[in-house]
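User: I've been trying to design a sequence by hand for this structure and keep getting stuck. Would you show me what you'd pick, starting by listing the structure so we're on the same page?

Assistant: Good idea, let's start from the same input. This is the structure you sent:
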């Protein structure tokens, strides 16, 4: 059974304006209003509750070097979310985490450690590979989550309680970046599979799972950042960049990849940029067919 976990966090994002607060923490509620939870429940999913995050603070004026935004609150949330993910898997269900920003990947990875090495399919309009080894601008984990997940960030983020790295780099597949991504060369060197949005659109959806499985193995985690969509159809994200996927392309991709996933997460939708709810409804239509299939192709998985 699919277990829906709401993770309403914005802790990994930069403030839209100095002193302001990002809106990504409102995404689970917006998706519920748009019908995502109800439509998945009608297909057998259960509601596994909410993992609340601490208060967002614009700490740019007070944060010491070597620390990310909202670090203490982010780590606390990661521990709580990791515990919920691990509990869900132990109960035999497939967790689907509805974020929130993509710093949730840190907590999810923390929760998967007990299951043993787990592959990752990271679908995102950016590689999210900024880290202290390649940038002096580290601060927002939502732009650094993939690097943190494979152990390249400051230990406070990438090695919480000594459990990092959360995913083996060789078993990680990244899909969806734009061709001019700043960290692309390093990502290609470190990860098992890297496909740009343009390249992935050229791969037949039926052939994609076999290509991914060569890197990840079955029972991978499926992380979907909705900024993989082109801003012409999905502007309600923190960092919209042209050259992304179209809704039908993403829907086909998720439907193909979800059956072999042990769980999934959806991140970075910002309802503050969607005042009439049209983009939440579009995303619901895109996501539900794939999310409903999470784990359906796995005969068994590690517990």
């Amino acid at each position: 059974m699919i277990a829906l976990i709401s993770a309403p966090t914005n802790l990994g994002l930069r403030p839209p304006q100095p002193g302001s607060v990002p809106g990504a923490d409102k995404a689970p509620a917006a998706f519920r209003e748009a019908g995502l939870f109800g439509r998945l429940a009608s297909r057998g999913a259960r509601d596994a509750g909410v993992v609340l995050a601490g208060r967002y603070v614009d700490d740019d004026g007070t944060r010491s070097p070597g620390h990310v935004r909202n670090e203490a609150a982010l780590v606390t949330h990661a521990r709580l979310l990791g515990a919920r993910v691990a509990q869900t898997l132990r109960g035999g269900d497939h967790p689907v985490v509805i974020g929130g920003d993509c710093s949730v990947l840190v907590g999810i990875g923390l929760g998967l450690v007990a299951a043993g090495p787990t592959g990752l399919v990271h679908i995102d309009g950016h590689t999210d590979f900024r880290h202290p080894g390649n940038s002096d601008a580290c601060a927002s984990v939502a732009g650094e989550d993939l690097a943190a997940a494979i152990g390249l960030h400051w230990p406070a983020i990438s090695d919480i309680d000594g459990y990092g790295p959360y995913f083996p780099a060789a078993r990680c597949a990244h899909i969806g970046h734009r061709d001019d991504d700043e960290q692309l060369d390093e990502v290609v060197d470190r990860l098992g599979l890297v496909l740009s949005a343009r390249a992935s659109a050229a791969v037949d959806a039926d052939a994609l799972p076999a290509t991914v499985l060569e890197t990840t193995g079955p029972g991978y985690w499926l992380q979907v950042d909705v900024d993989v969509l082109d801003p012409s159809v999905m502007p309600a994200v923190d960092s919209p960049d042209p050259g992304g996927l179209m809704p039908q392309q993403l829907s086909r991709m998720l439907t193909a990849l979800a059956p072999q996933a042990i769980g999934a997460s959806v991140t970075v939708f910002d309802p503050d940029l969607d005042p009439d709810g049209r983009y939440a409804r579009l995303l619901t239509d895109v996501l539900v067919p794939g999310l409903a299939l999470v784990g359906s192709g796995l005969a068994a998985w590690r517990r």
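That's my pick for every position. To get oriented when you compare it with your attempt: Residues 71-90 form the longest helix (20 residues). The longest strand covers residues 261-267.
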